[in-house]
Write a structure and sequence with these properties.
The chain is of the alpha+beta class and 450 residues long. 39% of the residues lie in helices and 18% in strands. The protein is built from ten helices and 15 strands. The longest helix is centred in the N-terminal third of the chain and has 45 residues, at 49-93.
Length: 450
């Protein structure tokens, strides 16, 4: 098969996977429709306006998600059809009398950085051993690894991660950061200022020939900077002396884990001091709700539904909700969702979506027990500065026979509209005893203490 046709087929396979992911959501939509139908039937004549409004809001949100999903499926299918046309043309133009070419010949004849068997956008951890070896043979990557090996011989110079490696590093950060892919991510080159529209005023009724009243429409500004999240990692020299494949894997994996974890923690709990402002810092007191211990089963989810209505989606076209909690809290939610299936077996039908209310459940171990933080993820703006670098060691671990490798990234973040988020305490958890703080403090900046 011609190389162009092979690449096109790979693109088609990727689009088909996206299409299957969208189709998988349909089952969840059907389930949520049934849950909302039950919630509507349970609304009695004595139901409050707040209860009715909460249910109506969830119905609107579900309909919007279904519409967006159908639109996405149509776009993907259209892309598949176009790619299939391209593939048919490429395969039709392929010569039938070409001599059989060996993999080694294909590899040698291809341009640097595009050798057969390597897709540089593929996750490094997902590559086969052969693909990793070929990837490490790319000229820029080979030079990068050589620079890391000889890092002690270079003074005062940063080693810039080549373009071939940078997508892998970002993908690893995304893999270990659970929130980077769901918030409103913007690439910024320096300081950025984002205009935010205020509350829409009410127009004024008047006589047909009367003067028109002025409407007060306000704008505010959100400034985004770029704070550094970084650290150095001592690496034993025997690892550096090992083969290139293991070396690159260790560097990428360690940096990705460290930066991703710190980034998620800042998005939730950041205080704005040399780090992003987190969701919690901007929560209104009215948007902190406690569900009592006595609220269990269906009553628990009814109370949760009402509490979730405190998060307003007035400013976001994307009605996607997220619910952040630790594993202990998720287990408690599952316990409230215990039901019997058609076979009479007990099940807790809670996977990655909150029952009745909807919204993706994301587990983060630094959130305290019985605390759930949620809302509309697109109302958190995360600014990502360009560039990532690994810098040289200054021989600080020479005696330990270790080489120090420094990884850095730059982010800033702010809540665009604080009314888009809510904190819910279950099992009677209140917010009077620093419950809205992380399980552990942020890593201490000991290197810059005076």
């Amino acid at each position: 098969m011609a190389l162009k046709a092979l690449l096109t087929r790979k693109k088609i396979d990727a689009e088909k996977m996206r299409l299957e992911a969208c189709r998988a959501k349909d089952a969840d939509f059907s389930k949520r429709e049934m849950e909302l139908e039950n919630a509507i039937n349970e609304l009695g004549d004595d139901a409050t306006d707040e209860e009715r409004a909460a249910v109506e809001g969830e119905v609107d949100a579900l309909n919007e998600e279904k519409r967006a999903n159908e639109e996405e499926k149509s776009k993907i299918q259209e892309a598949i059809d176009k790619l299939q046309e391209i593939l048919d043309a490429e395969e039709g133009d392929q010569p039938t009398d070409d001599p059989v070419r060996t993999e080694q010949n294909d590899h040698d004849n291809m341009p640097t950085g595009r050798k057969r068997g390597v897709n540089i956008m593929k996750r490094y951890a997902d590559m086969s051993y052969t693909e990793r070896k070929v990837f490490c043979e790319i000229e820029n990557v080979r030079k990068f690894i050589a620079d890391v090996r000889n890092i002690r011989a270079v003074n005062g110079t940063d080693i810039i991660i080549p373009e071939e490696v940078l997508p892998l590093l970002k993908d690893t950060v995304n893999r270990y950061s659970k929130l980077r892919s769901v918030v409103n991510l913007k690439q910024i080159g320096g300081k950025a200022r984002v205009p935010v529209l205020g509350t829409i005023p009410e127009a004024v009724w008047t006589e047909q020939g009367g003067k028109i009243n002025e409407l007060a429409l306000s704008f505010s500004q959100v400034d985004i900077d770029g704070y550094k999240v970084a650290g150095f990692i001592p690496v034993s020299n025997w690892i550096l002396e090992d083969n290139d494949v293991d070396l690159l894997g260790n560097i990428i994996d360690a940096i990705g884990q460290a930066i991703g974890y710190a980034l998620d923690k800042a998005i939730v709990f950041g205080d704005g001091e040399k780090k992003p402002e987190g969701i919690v810092k901007n929560l209104d007191e009215a948007n902190k709700v406690t569900i009592p211990v006595a609220s269990t089963g269906a009553k628990f989810f009814k109370d949760f539904l009402i509490a979730s209505g405190k998060a307003k989606a007035n400013y976001t076209p994307n009605k996607r909700k997220i619910w952040l909690m630790n594993e202990t809290t998720l287990t408690a939610v599952k316990a409230e969702a215990l039901t019997f299936n058609a076979s009479g077996a007990i099940v807790a039908d809670v996977n990655s979506v909150m029952p009745v209310i909807g919204g993706e459940i994301i587990t983060l171990d630094f959130i305290k027990d019985n605390i759930i933080i949620g809302g509309y993820a697109s109302m958190y703006l995360l600014g990502e500065r360009k560039g990532a670098a690994i810098a040289q060691s200054k021989e600080v671990k020479f005696i330990e026979d270790e080489t120090v490798i420094k990884g850095t990234a730059r982010y800033d973040g702010k809540v665009l509209k604080k009314e888009a988020f809510v904190a819910i305490g279950i099992n009677g958890a209140t917010f009077e005893a620093d419950e809205l703080k992380p399980q552990t403090d942020f890593a201490e900046d000991t290197a810059n203490m005076g």
